[in-house]
Amino acid sequence: MDATPTLIALLHGPDQPGLVARVASWIFERGGNILHADQHRDREVGVFFQRVEWQPAFSVAVGEGAASAAAKATAASHALADKSQGRPVDRAAAARDFSEFATHSLGMKVRMQSSDARPRVALFVSKADHCFHDLVLRWKAGDFPCEIVGVVGNHSDLREASEGYGLRFVQIAINASNKAAAELEQIALLREWGVELVVLARYMQVLSADFLATLGAPVINIHHSFLPAFAGGRPYHQAHARGVKLIGATAHYATRDLDEGPIIHQDVARITHRHGVEDLVRKGRDLEKSVLAQAMRWHLEGRVLVYGNKTVVFD
Amino acid sequence: MDATPTLIALLHGPDQPGLVARVASWIFERGGNILHADQHRDREVGVFFQRVEWQPAFSVAVGEGAASAAAKATAASHALADKSQGRPVDRAAAARDFSEFATHSLGMKVRMQSSDARPRVALFVSKADHCFHDLVLRWKAGDFPCEIVGVVGNHSDLREASEGYGLRFVQIAINASNKAAAELEQIALLREWGVELVVLARYMQVLSADFLATLGAPVINIHHSFLPAFAGGRPYHQAHARGVKLIGATAHYATRDLDEGPIIHQDVARITHRHGVEDLVRKGRDLEKSVLAQAMRWHLEGRVLVYGNKTVVFD
Amino acid sequence: MDATPTLIALLHGPDQPGLVARVASWIFERGGNILHADQHRDREVGVFFQRVEWQPAFSVAVGEGAASAAAKATAASHALADKSQGRPVDRAAAARDFSEFATHSLGMKVRMQSSDARPRVALFVSKADHCFHDLVLRWKAGDFPCEIVGVVGNHSDLREASEGYGLRFVQIAINASNKAAAELEQIALLREWGVELVVLARYMQVLSADFLATLGAPVINIHHSFLPAFAGGRPYHQAHARGVKLIGATAHYATRDLDEGPIIHQDVARITHRHGVEDLVRKGRDLEKSVLAQAMRWHLEGRVLVYGNKTVVFD
Amino acid sequence: MDATPTLIALLHGPDQPGLVARVASWIFERGGNILHADQHRDREVGVFFQRVEWQPAFSVAVGEGAASAAAKATAASHALADKSQGRPVDRAAAARDFSEFATHSLGMKVRMQSSDARPRVALFVSKADHCFHDLVLRWKAGDFPCEIVGVVGNHSDLREASEGYGLRFVQIAINASNKAAAELEQIALLREWGVELVVLARYMQVLSADFLATLGAPVINIHHSFLPAFAGGRPYHQAHARGVKLIGATAHYATRDLDEGPIIHQDVARITHRHGVEDLVRKGRDLEKSVLAQAMRWHLEGRVLVYGNKTVVFD
Q1: Which of A156, B6, B123, C25 pairs as cysteine with B115 (C-beta 3.0–4.6 A)?
Q2: CATH code of C95's domain
Q3: Phi, psi for residue B266 in degrees, rounded to 5
Q4: Least CB-CB distance to C141: which of A130, A164, A278?
């Protein structure tokens, strides 16, 4: 396994001929080595999507216009040679340069991340602990490239467990009358912690549009149903009442429209008439854990691109 | 494999202690041998459900009150001995007797069938042929204990294929202005054919409440979505627009409320952003085939019990 | 939900007519109320299997031979009336009586358990902690009707985590030269703890035939492959080398023949060429957790019946 | 949907920096528009794999060395403009040119195909008809971009069905003594038919290494088990005897080592103790159909790359 850190770019914008070549050439001409490059075209709306991951070299000053394919290969070899001599790669600069290129030359929206970045994540919880334990244990097992920097609960049920894991826990109680103030308190806390991603691990509270707009960071939620079926509360009771033969769970980005955010991942489990509501809840817990963990991992690995109300997941 | 025909009873009614024992004893005391007996209690509504399948002996005239467990066993042995001597079993009488017992002594609703019955089935089709071919080929392969006695289409597209399989095909064109008359024509035809089950193999037309009430036989439909999500028309377009990660299909009994009938079977398939609507349609065809075929088999094997808007499937 | 404790009997033995009726009648005549009764016949080998679960009343002294069906119902009503008056049910006696009946009158092998029993369980672990945390957290969430009474590790890696959960941890180091002595130490410990079930949560050591025979209690193991494929060590490496498209996990009872014990549960996950061995290991961990947890739950609920090298799982 | 035919290249060879860029630039500089480009690196063996699909323009004579990124885009626009004026694209020449480039400049092995090619396919059958009907009906529904040019059976059971579909059927009976001669007859027939792919639709005969070498075209087989478990004959009987909880099917390229060829696709279905061997066979038929059809589609769409004994499937 080559552990050299990589740059990951997520691009999307108006489709046009040559995008794949122009991105690949830009990287290659600067001595970069592309490890993965996935792209997708949504032909209905004419949008191009790409996830490209590469090992950058130092910033090469090659006369681009003059470089034939052969010359490029030579330049690249030189770059690599230099790199092998230990001349440091300025990944931040490379990311900045690529971002500028993609934005201005290609007209793309771009999100960059480095494979050795460890975004700061906060978990929001309520009383249910299954997703909480699952995420923290996976994180401790090394499954998630991030730092979980704290836990916020509207109840205090998970304080002890959080602190047992060495995580700070802050209770911010929410009720009908204090919601706006409580959300301001949450925002202040998340800023203090430098949070770049919020994961709602069965938080059970709706976040206001104001909260989401002010936060300015993505929020991943797990909904305990196969959306759009059984949106809203008590979906297992609804599923049982309707007599469906499968139950599901849906991980999605939180948006101002409850249960309507872009879906990242979904899965289902088979049920029968023998299963009561409590069995559905139990089976649902397993679904919720695995679906939320998978969505969180894909997000952290820079595999999820949102456009409109949908996602492209480069898995 | 013991090929002796069996009786199958589907019971349901108010729960009460001793139902399992009373059913089993009734059968045993008459020399019957229970092969399968599945039951279910819905504790919320206090309803008992049972599917029991047994090899009946001739009608025994045992003084029930006098029979000790040991005596019963002896009587049963005699009955079996007799049976082994070739004295014919009157299964129709046994079914009648059991039905009377279950209805009057146990207060159950009961549906009886014999394992060697081959109910007469009509297929309703439109233009799409995938479920049609699938059902007919499975039937020819011996998967379905029934007789497919004819095909009814609102278009004539599947006439040639039907006749190629040796099945008669009748076109009854439906349009906005002739629906009531066309349904009367369908009813007359189904009666003439002696149809006991109608399977809508992508028929694409809504059956009126009048049709269903007049027909008096079950109708199984395949809906091309994971109900209740994306009910109604063009579900694959809806699924694509919403960006879901799984598509589904649902087999259900047709009721007057479109897409609301009791669900027999459901399944899903995973999709990604790479799949266009046409891919969803293609993947959906496979789901529709397998889900409808499974539902039809379970129905024909007497495994599906409807109550309220739900089913109990003794699989 | 009716929380009255129930008796569960697992029977198997030579098939004969009337078994279902005789079991049901025996229970009913003693005022018991059958909640679930599943049976299975293996026609190839002529063996009958049953799981029956019932709420016993007190031991009724009804003259069985004289009881007509009607009289039985009356007796049962009386029994229930008595029960409703609070006369205590002697479940231990009822279990003993049924066991005797099933053994001597029916010629069955029988295993009895009470729904409120909480068998004493020991976990055997090594260094990997995913199954360990998963089982303990599910147990704490109330998923498993048992008492986890201690953790035995051949390494000390999970001591702190065990004790953090309030579980005692004993290290018994195993190496090539001390295996027999170490196993004797384990046996002594398990007896001291009164252990009725051992779960190997990625224990990674083979138990000797002597250990299993001496222990006399069931041992459930999780194997990290879809047995019988890739039996033995390093199955994920083997799966990767062979280029299979699915990996699996198998929970089975440990027997003297490694990887050959009766299979309780299996599941698979889809993989692609993109997944390296380390991805297979990560995906495998999720499989191992869910498959082992499901097998353990089924065992604890008295749903698993072993015969020969196979299981009947009444799920 | 843009129906302009595309070129598809499957490349693999020693990994080296810049491959993605060099391929993309080669295509772009010749006015081609890349629609899909998937690649994979097997880091253990240092092999690079790519599937790239593009719409070629006419062969552009652009001075490559002089083309700046901007100039390239302009050239591409001109090419496209020309193309829109109807100047014909010589796809055969473009394929030849690319193949030469990939082979000589990049050191890759390359397989080219055009999206509007319809390879000539022969089905080999025996007595079982489920895969046969399934493949033919999917082909008639437009699922497979190929021509099924004939059916070869070692028995005559499927003659009538083949001819009913308008397909010629040739019986070449195989027995212990005539195998070599029969295979020569098959080879002659396949050459006469111009066959580019053979699909064994439950053919049940082993093809000799000589046959495979002489044929020189790929052969896809469906094995009725989850290989490598239960390789060889009667896998459903083996699965039943072992008491596994899942059965599977495996589509693979036929090689001289029976059951050892590169796996293209696999799937499983859940079974229980209730299922006898005949149920496994029935459920297995559904698996075999769907797994073989998927593998055949992936092959025809140029998504399967073989290396060593494994496949890379760009799905």
Answers
A1: B6
A2: 3.30.70.260
A3: -145, 150
A4: A130
Q: Which of A42, A259, A286, A315 is catalytic?
A: A259
Q: pTM for this one? A: 0.91
Q: Is there a single domain that holds both residue C65 and residue C37?
A: yes
Contact A143 C1 (CB under 8 A): no
Structure tokens at D235: 């896998």
pLDDT given for residue D44 in this prediction = 82
CA distance C218 to chain A (A): 26
Q: How many residues does chain B have?
A: 315
- What are the angstrom distances between the C-alpha of C236 and each of A144, B88, C10, C274, D189? 21, 59, 36, 14, 43
Q: What is the DSSP letter of C200?
A: E
Class of residue B130 by CB neighbours under 10 A (exposed 0-12, middle 13-18, buried 19+): buried
Instruction: List the structure tokens of D209.
Output: 């290494």
Asked if residue D2 belongs to a domain, the reply is no
The total number of structural domains in chain C stands at: 2
Task: Look at residue A143 and tell me if it is in a domain.
Answer: yes
Last residue of a domain, one of A60, A82, A114: A114
Catalytic residue among B2, B116, B210, B259: B259
Q: Do D286 and B282 touch (CB under 8 A)?
A: no
A28 and A176 in a common domain: no
Residues D69 and D214 in one domain: no
Chain centroid to Cα B296, Å, comes to 6
Whether residues D190 and D297 fall in one domain: yes
Packed helices B19-29 and C69-84: angle between N→C axes, nearest 10 degrees? 160
Residue B180: closest CA among B172, B192, B191? B172
Identity of the residue in C49, C229, C263 whose CB atom sits nearest the CB atom of D245: C263
> Is there a domain that residue C85 lies in?
yes
CA distances for C269 relative to A26, C244, C284, angstroms: 38, 11, 8
Scanning every residue of chain C, which has its alpha carbon at the shortest distance from the alpha carbon of B63? C68
User: Token digits for A22?
Assistant: 């122009």
The answer on C261 and C185 residing in a single domain is yes
Residue in the block written with tokens 């079996």:
B80
Residues B202 and B248 in one domain: yes
Residue C147 corresponds to which amino acid? E
| A140 DSSP assignment | H
Which chain C residues touch A1 with a CB distance below 8 Å?
276, 278
The CATH number that applies at residue A222 is 3.40.50.170
CA C95 to chain centroid = 19
Residue C133 and residue A133: Cβ atoms within 8 Å?
A: yes
Tens of pLDDT along A228-278? 888 878 899 999 889 999 999 999 999 988 788 999 999 999 999 989 899
Question: Does residue C86 belong to the interface with chain B, where contact is any CB pair within 8 Å?
Answer: no
Do A150 and A286 fall within a single domain?
yes
Does any domain span residue B2? Answer: no
Instruction: Check if D42 contacts C (Cβ < 8 Å).
Output: yes
Element (H, E) at A71: helix A69-84
- Inter-residue contact D206 to D179 (CB < 8 Å): no
- Is the four-CA dihedral D259, D265, D268, D269 of positive or negative sign? negative
Tell me: do A159 and A306 sit in the same domain. yes
Whether residue C247 contacts residue C236, with contact meaning beta carbons closer than 8 Å, is answered with yes
Nearest to B154 by CA among B111, B185, B108: B185
**Domain of B43?**
7-114
Q: Which of B61, B90, B114 represents a domain boundary (last residue)?
A: B114
Which pLDDT tens digits describe chain D residue by residue (315 residues)?
456 789 999 999 999 988 999 999 999 999 998 988 899 988 888 999 999 999 988 544 444 333 344 444 444 444 443 444 445 678 889 999 999 999 999 999 999 999 999 999 999 999 999 999 999 999 999 999 999 999 999 999 999 999 999 999 999 999 889 999 999 999 999 999 999 999 999 998 889 999 999 999 999 999 999 888 888 788 999 998 899 999 999 999 999 887 889 999 999 999 999 898 999 999 999 999 999 999 999 999 999 999 889 999 998
Nearest to A243 among B43, B244, B311 (CB): B311
